[in-house]
Amino acid sequence: MSLLKNFSLYCLAVGWSFAVSAQQGETISAPSDDAGYPPMVVQTCFSCHGPRGQSQSPAIPSIAGLPRDYLLNVLAAYRYGGRFGTIMDRIMGAYDKHQVAIMADYFSRQPYRVNKQDAKWQLADRGRQLHRRYCRECHGDGLQLSDKGAPLLIGGWMDYLRWTIRDYLVGINQGDEEMSRQLARLIRNHGEPGLEALIHYYGKGRP
Ligand code: HEC
Ligand code: HEC
Predict the structure, then answer these.
(1) Could you read off the pLDDT of 11-49 as tens digits, one per residue?
(2) What is the pLDDT of residues 183-192, one digit of tens each?
(3) pLDDT tens track for 65-74
(4) Superfamily for the 2-108 domain
(5) Does the beta carbon of 151 sit less than 6 angstroms from any atom of ligand 2?
(6) How far is the CA of 41 from the centre of ligand 1 (A)?
(7) Which residues touch 77 (CB under 8 Å, ≥6 apart)?
(8) For ligand 2, is residue 147 a contact (CB within 6 Å)?
(9) 202 in helix, strand or coil?
C-alpha cells in the first residue's frame, strides 16, 4: 500500500493540465501516434472495454483517454490491492510491468469518449453544483483535467460510477483520503439523493 501511496503522490507532484472538448456521444481527438495496428496485448482488453477502450456497455468503464499515470496506478491497485475488481484483479495477475506500461501508453493516447445515456436534466443541474463543491478540485472542471491526477468522471457510464462510488464508501476501494472526506461530507449533507444527482450530472455529459 505504501508503494501505491508514494506513486499517487508522485502523480500529484508531476501534475497534468490539458484541455479537451467534446460533444455528447462524440469522441475527441488527442494527439496519437497509434495510426497503425494496436499492440497485441491491448486487443484482449477490447472484448470488454470496447474498441480502443471506448466501452459500449454501461457496466464497464471506458478506459480511452484516461491519464497515463492514473492507468498505471489503478492497474497496479487491482493487482496488489486498493481497488476492488469483480474481474480486473484476476485479469491483471497475468501481465508483467512492461505489458502494463504498453497498456497505459496505448489507452492514454486514445480519444476520451462522452457516453450517450439517459440522464435527468433536473438532477444533472443539481449534480453540477455538488460536483463543483465536492469533487471539481480533483476531478476537473467540465472536460478539463485538474492538476491532481484524478480521472475525469463526466461522460462516464452511470452504472459503473454508481457501483464504484459505493465501493469507496464502504471502503473496499481505497482512494485519496481527502476524497473520502469529501464523499462523507456529500452523504452527510445531501444523502443518497445528492449522490444520485451527481451521477446524473456525469451521465448527462454536459459541463
Ligand atoms: C472480462 C471483461 C474485461 C476484460 C477482458 C478487461 N476488463 Fe478492465 N474492467 C472490467 C470491469 C468489469 C471493470 C470494473 C472493475 C471490475 O469490476 O473489475 C474494469 C475496469 C478497468 C479499469 C478501471 C477504469 C477506471 O475508470 O478506473 C481499467 C483501467 C481497466 N479495466 C483496464 C483493462 C485493461 C488494460 C484490460 C486488458 C488487459 C482490461 N481492462 C480487460 C472488465 C474487463
Ligand atoms: C482530493 C482529491 C479528490 C476529491 C476531492 C475527489 N476525488 Fe475522486 N478520486 C481522486 C483520486 C486521486 C482518484 C483515483 C484513486 C484511485 O486510484 O483509486 C479518485 C477516483 C475516483 C473514482 C473512480 C474513477 C474511476 O474511473 O474508476 C470515482 C468514481 C470518484 N473518485 C468519485 C469522486 C466523487 C463523486 C467526488 C466528490 C464527492 C470525488 N471523487 C472527490 C481524488 C479525489
Answers:
(1) 333 332 233 334 445 454 444 444 568 999 999 999 999
(2) 999 999 999 9
(3) 999 999 999 9
(4) Cytochrome c-like domain (1.10.760.10)
(5) yes
(6) 14
(7) 4, 83
(8) no
(9) helix
